[in-house]
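Hi, here's the filled form for the chain we discussed.

Project: internal
Contact: R.S.
Residues: 317
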Amino acid sequence: MKAVAVSKFKEIPTLMDLPIPTVRPHAVLIKVFAAGMNPFDWKLTDGIMDDGKMKHQFPLIMGVDGAGVVEEVGEGVTHFKKGDKVFGQFIHSPIGEGSYAEFAIVPEKASITHAPSNISAAEAAAVPTAGMTAQQLLETAGLKKGDVLLINGATGGVGSFATELASAQGIKVIATVSDEANAERMKRLGAEVIINYKEKPLAETVKSLFPQGIDGILDMVSNANDFSANLALLKKGGVALTTTFVADDAAIKDKGFRGGNFETQGSAASLDALKKMIEAGKLTIPVENRITLAEVPEAIALSRQAKGRGKTVIIIA
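And the returned structure, exactly as it came back:
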């Protein structure tokens, strides 16, 4: 089968011919139709989880998010059967049996579930990590209808989902963008205030619009200094969460705010909640780029340079 993999940590990923995985007890073999790309994918190949506790195998096939159809079920599997359409996070131990491949082996108890019935595999593959992260960020923030929320990094996968989910809850969203096309897209997703950070300073603009302060910040892009500086935009008791792990959690608490560094907890239950919203027509799937397995190395290089634009999905079958 074709798969994008590395032979050692920090190697440039390449398209390889590898054996189709053999199904194991309590696991399913998935014929992968599409895989969603996230920066975490290449961080895995850099060894971010190589702490001596998580087993890795090489060649290490990349990819966390995926969607496809169950090709074969292993002994003891009860939740899935051959022919079921599924989506979710394929990550498990050993690291290296990822979704950037024509076939993937995934434990039944991983964060996978039956795919939504009303969207394509490409759209389903874009949902898991970004969708669950946005969903859980908002749950952790605990904002209510009428509150004001700055989403910094709004045009990415997580930010797009968060904008739409927050707006649906009656939260007033301030979305950051870098161009007019994304400004229009954020408006369609429900953002009430759009700030092009290339045209005007973000913090100064927010402060001029909301001199009494805002209630929350979800940040997917800032460095430590910028994230810390933006805390001054919050009302006392406000919340600030970052997915880039640049927060000083103790300092946030000392300033009278809530929040800090945020890590997604993948689960089938979270996916099922998103699936319910998708099937009810309450969630738009932001797929901006569709590429082939052969184009993945170039897309990863762009992601490393923070030059990727929007949600990218690999079309495999």
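Let me know if anything looks off before we file it.
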